[in-house]
Amino acid sequence: MSDDDRGGLHRLVAARLDEVGQLYTGNRRRLIELLADAGPSTLPELLVAGDGLAQSSAYRNLTVLAEVGVVRRLVHGGDHARWELAEELTGHHHHLVCDLCGTVVDVELPMEVESLMDRAFDAAAAAAGFDVDHHNVDILGRCADCRVTGN
Q1: Residue 40: which domain range?
Q2: Rounded mean pLDDT of 141-146?
Q3: Nearest Cα to 89, choosing from 42, 33, 131?
Q4: Which residues contact 71 (CB under 8 A, 6 or more apart)?
Q5: How far apart are CA 38 and CA 64, in angstroms?
Q6: CATH code for the domain in which residue 78 is found
Q7: pLDDT (tens digit, 9 = 90+) per residue, 93-117?
Q8: How far is Cα of residue 58 from the mean position of the Cα atoms in its chain?
Q9: What is the three-class DSSP state of 112?
Q10: Is 118 found in the same domain as 72?
């Protein structure tokens, strides 16, 4: 992410927090930086990378950031949920999820695949009288490390 993109990211987060009377504190800024650099991360991973972040305040700050729509919580099983920047900030993507170790990797699919999925989801939803806002697709399997170790 370029410095200009990062500056825009921080301005957007600050504005969203300001709308609900919250401040863009140093700890919140640090969490946004960590998520921008690392992608989907567990709270323990963020605490290690964030050297000095307190667990209770990090969790509270992630919750506030999720409430204003700049981060989202991913639950894919495993011991810990993962947190990532909202798609509005990073672009639409899906996840490769390791069933064994819980690793989550962002992947973007070609636009023609996304369009095909959108049409199929819209048709299925219309048949059920459902309005689609967006979709999330997780691709489950084993990561390269777990395949190598034979897990």
Answers
A1: 1-91
A2: 92
A3: 33
A4: 31, 32, 35, 62, 65, 83, 84, 85, 86
A5: 20
A6: 1.10.10.10
A7: 999 989 888 888 889 999 999 999 9
A8: 16
A9: helix
A10: no
